[in-house]
Design a protein that fits this description.
Layout: E1 6-9, E2 31-35, E3 45-52, E4 59-64, E5 70-76, E6 80-85, E7 91-99, E8 106-113, E9 119-123, E10 131-138, E11 144-154, E12 167-177, E13 183-188, E14 206-207, E15 214-217, E16 223-226, E17 231-234, E18 241-245, E19 253-255, H1 259-265, E20 268-273, E21 279-283, E22 295-302, E23 307-314, E24 327-330, E25 336-339, E26 351-355, E27 358-365, E28 371-378, E29 387-392, E30 399-401, E31 407-413, E32 420-426, E33 434-435, E34 441-442, E35 446-452, E36 456-464, H2 465-468, E37 477-481, E38 488-491, E39 494-497, E40 502-510, E41 515-523, E42 534-535, E43 539-540, E44 560-564, E45 569-574, E46 581-587, E47 597-602, E48 606-609, E49 617-626, E50 629-630, E51 634-641, E52 645-649, E53 655-657, E54 662-668, E55 674-680, E56 683-692, E57 697-700, E58 709-718, E59 725-727, E60 732-735, E61 741-747, E62 753-758, E63 764-770, E64 777-783, E65 788-793, E66 803-807
Parallel strand pairs: 12-14, 19-23, 33-38, 44-51, 53-60
Antiparallel strand pairs: 1-29, 2-27, 3-4, 3-28, 4-5, 6-7, 7-8, 8-9, 10-11, 11-12, 12-13, 15-16, 16-17, 17-18, 20-21, 21-22, 22-23, 24-25, 25-26, 26-27, 29-32, 30-31, 31-36, 32-35, 34-41, 35-41, 36-40, 37-38, 37-41, 39-40, 42-45, 43-45, 45-48, 46-47, 46-49, 49-50, 49-51, 52-54, 54-57, 55-56, ...
Length: 809
């Protein structure tokens, strides 16, 4: 009998990249590379994308060798964000389609390329939101994490003094999309924070909050997110915030650094979990501080006792100022690869690789105005990282080791004769996996088998836990699909032997054109618990808005909202934790004994209804369906009313001073824009605003071209129906700065002073007194009745001389 022969085809050490031979375009950025210790540089190609170009330089995604030679590049029409290798070996970049006006970054379309750089998929956010540039993660199980922003109109005059009554406040949305790209998890900032929180204290018309930089799935199945101010962990099961690290809500104490410095370290642009359990952070330099430098930190986190211990730090010398963007990546050889991000003409390097704290490699754009959002190093292409071992002439009853793959097979039936079985192990997750029911958490490693002259093969396949680096093999399950690269993975009956350290599964393999299928290794994910969804305010549907999404805020419990019966009605909600689908009912009966709408299955977290009748109260309810079952209902109500406009300020009796800013305020239920006009004694004086959004407030400063008078009124009217309007219920005044006129002064017998005050056009006056004309003290803020009042100074005596000052606000 011939002895089996083993053939080993292992991955080559060193840099494996395909080089582009074509002449580079004239607008391709040139680079300079400095390599201090070539032997210490990690394997792989450099992945960068031009997010900020210079004159004469285009937007590019690029793969580069260590000398700056392009392996591959693609010119884009706008900024390139987050170009990197995904856990399955495919590529990702975000193509900007719209720059955001209220925060950094922009709306994007996420592009997925295969290992041959061919387009495979375009991914956008769900539930009516638009994906944003800062981060994108494809999970090993095929789901994706992405972020976006949405805008909410908030009456900030109820939150901070001088607040804008129609402020637009931005919030962040985090979504997880499944293989069909349905939203199965959604977290919105203002569902978990009130607008009265200590962060939102601005009087601006547009307020930027929750500027998310990155999100990743942690090893416990929950999410870690970061902004330039803090890091937080969010439960995927409930959406609750599990802990706060850094920022004003910090719950951690710090070891190895002061509390102040530790909080500063977690003002990060990039954070990721290392294989040893620590976290690696990239900290931007401070805006406007030229001596400030970006830094990289490694921390150990005790999440139970809320202790963060600094393990390692790297501060470049001389410093590198990267006040925004940037990344930090730990390489397999222990090096740290840094993308500095930065500002045009400020950041001196695009990327640096350090061994410990020694710089072994650095690359910069020759034009320092060119910026790459992040920079990474990855071994590429994926097949260069595979380990392949073939065994010849398998026979029933024998066991075979496939060497460096860490795989062995106990053959029980189906083998014999002249045959070859080949095992390939790759450090990548499977490509587009599918699962029955809830997806497990998948490890980024796959094993595929091919055969020659074997139709079926039965036996036990074993995976060496130490070779694969399994950290918790007792909780792992082996999954298998019959066709490599496509199809449904099914769990296999899996056992772990702690003595042999082998993870084993009994299998029966059937060839599919020489393909014996693919194996992966999975942990159970956090269980689905069906919580009722979080209902939003009921509004009229605004139509498709591709950019700057304006989304309803969380509903007030028990509130019945009013909507225009002539317009579509938007019912929307967010899942609390996981959601696979929803049910929705709409009725005129509070007990839902009969329903006008009954939707038994839908994946979108909103519903647009066109069937509302005038002057009717409706009840609606929604429930969540997930792998844990069906939730209870969340109940809401709304009533339909005719189109209306109601003016609230100025609405009669007010005095508006020329040269001072005011908010004209109204309420309505219109979809169209409005006009605002100023009238005097019923005659049109001027148009204040034409065709402006009907958001309930418009900031206006009465000009000095307007003649003071007491017979003015404001009219707000629809741009499409002039008859639909609202006029001030009574005249108001436009005045110049009120002047305070003391009237008669009387010295009372006890020495106290009484005098009259006249101040037409003012509603209150401040009264101050002094004995030396320098130390003035506020005595009282006096309300005025019809412009005047009487005041008695009860602190006065017969002895000292007193001076008085009167001031209107």
């Amino acid at each position: 009998m011939k002895h089996p022969t083993t053939c080993i085809l292992a991955a080559l050490a060193g840099l494996l990249c395909f080089r582009a031979s074509a002449q580079l375009p004239a607008d391709f950025p040139t680079l300079t590379v400095t390599t201090n210790y070539p032997a210490a540089v990690a394997d792989g190609c450099i992945f960068q994308g031009v997010s900020l170009p210079a004159p004469g330089v285009g937007y590019y995604a690029m793969v580069l060798t260590n000398d700056g030679t392009p392996v591959w590049y693609q010119k884009l029409t706008n900024a390139c964000w987050d170009f990197k290798v995904l856990p399955n070996g495919y590529l990702h970049y975000a193509q900007q389609i719209h720059a955001l006006s209220y925060t950094g970054g922009g709306d994007v379309v996420h592009q997925i390329l295969d290992q041959n750089y061919s387009p495979k998929e375009t991914i956008q956010a769900g539930n009516g939101y638009v994906a944003e540039a800062h981060d994108f993660q494809m999970l090993p199980n095929g789901d994706v994490l992405l972020i976006g922003y949405y805008l909410s109109q908030v009456d900030m005059s109820q939150v901070v003094p001088g607040g804008n009554p129609a402020a637009i406040v931005s919030g962040a949305v985090i979504q997880e999309l499944d293989a069909q790209r349905h939203v199965v998890f959604q977290w919105r900032a203002w569902d978990h924070y009130p607008f009265t929180s200590q962060w939102v204290n601005s009087t601006a018309s547009v307020i930027s909050e929750f500027h998310l930089n990155c999100v990743f799935l942690d090893t416990d199945g929950n999410l870690v997110v970061s902004t330039p101010d803090w890091v937080k962990k969010i439960s995927r099961q409930t959406g609750a915030i599990l802990w706060h690290l850094g920022g004003v809500e910090n719950q951690f104490t710090f070891v190895g650094v002061s509390q102040q410095e530790g909080i500063r370290d977690f003002q990060s642009h990039d954070i990721n979990r290392l294989p040893n359990g620590d976290v690696l952070l990239y900290n931007n330099s401070q805006f406007g501080q030229t001596a400030s430098t970006s830094r990289i930190q490694e921390y150990a986190l005790d999440e139970t006792n809320k202790i963060a211990t600094r393990i390692w730090t790297y501060t470049p010398n001389p410093g590198i100022s990267g006040p925004f963007q940037g990344s930090a990546q730990r390489m397999a050889n222990g090096n740290t690869f840094i993308g500095w991000g930065g500002l045009p003409d400020i950041t001196t390097a695009a990327c640096t690789e350090v061994a410990g704290t020694n710089v072994v490699f650095q690359m910069k754009f020759d034009d320092t105005n060119v910026v790459s959002y992040r920079s990474f190093r990855f071994p590429y292409p994926p097949e260069s990282q595979a380990t392949t071992v073939s065994v010849l002439e398998l026979a029933n009853g024998n066991s075979y080791s496939f060497g460096q793959t860490g795989v062995s097979i106990d053959v029980q039936n189906g083998a014999g004769g002249y045959n070859i079985l080949t095992v390939t192990r790759s450090p990548y997750a499977p490509v587009y996996p599918l699962f029955q029911g809830k997806e497990p958490r998948v490890l980024p490693v796959r094993v595929s088998l091919t055969e020659n002259a074997i139709v079926t093969l039965g036996g036990v396949i074993n995976f060496d836990a130490q070779s694969f680096g399994f950290s918790d093999p007792t909780n792992l399950t082996v999954y298998y699909r019959q066709t490599t690269g496509q199809g449904l993975f099914l769990p296999q009956s899996t056992t772990y032997n702690p003595v042999t350290q082998k993870l084993s599964a009994a299998v029966t393999l059937t060839t599919q054109g020489n393909d014996f299928g693919e194996f992966i290794f999975c942990y159970p994910d956090i269980p689905d618990v069906p919580y009722p969804p979080l209902l939003d305010q009921v509004e009229n549907y605004p139509g498709i808005q591709p950019y700057d999404v304006v989304a309803p805020v969380l509903a007030t419990t028990g509130n019945t909202y009013s909507v225009n019966h002539a317009l579509p009605v938007l019912l929307s909600w967010s899942p609390k934790g996981f959601a696979r689908s929803y049910q929705l009912q709409i009725s005129t009966n509070a007990d839902f004994s009969s329903n006008l709408v009954s939707v038994s299955y839908q994946t979108d977290a909103y519903y647009v209804w066109n069937g509302a009748a005038p002057n009717t109260t409706y009840y609606y309810r929604a429930k969540t369906i997930n792998e844990g079952g069906a939730s209870d209902w969340s109940d809401g109500a709304f009533q339909t009313v005719p189109p209306f406009i109601s003016l609230t300020f100025p609405n009669g009796g007010e005095a508006l001073q020329r040269g001072v800013q005011y908010f004209i305020r109204w309420s309505d239920d219109l979809a169209e824009n409005i006009n605002i006009d100023l009238y005097k004694s019923g005659a049109l004086v001027k148009n204040i605003a034409a065709n402006v959004p009907s958001n309930g407030a418009y900031e206006w400063q009465p000009g000095f071209d307007i003649v003071p008078g007491s017979d003015y009124s404001i009219q707000v009217s629809s741009t499409t129906n002039a008859a639909l309007s609202a006029l001030s219920q009574a005249p108001f005044s436009i005045i110049d700065a009120p002047t305070v006129t003391p009237g008669s002064v009387t010295i009372l017998p006890d020495g106290k002073v009484q005098f009259a005050i006249a101040c037409p056009g003012a509603t209150q006056v401040s009264v101050l007194s002094s004995t030396n004309l320098s130390d003035w003290q506020l005595l009282q803020i006096l309300p005025l009745d019809s412009g005047g009042a009487s005041f008695t100074d009860n602190t006065a005596t017969n002895s000292p001389a007193l001076f008085y000052r009167l001031r209107v606000p």
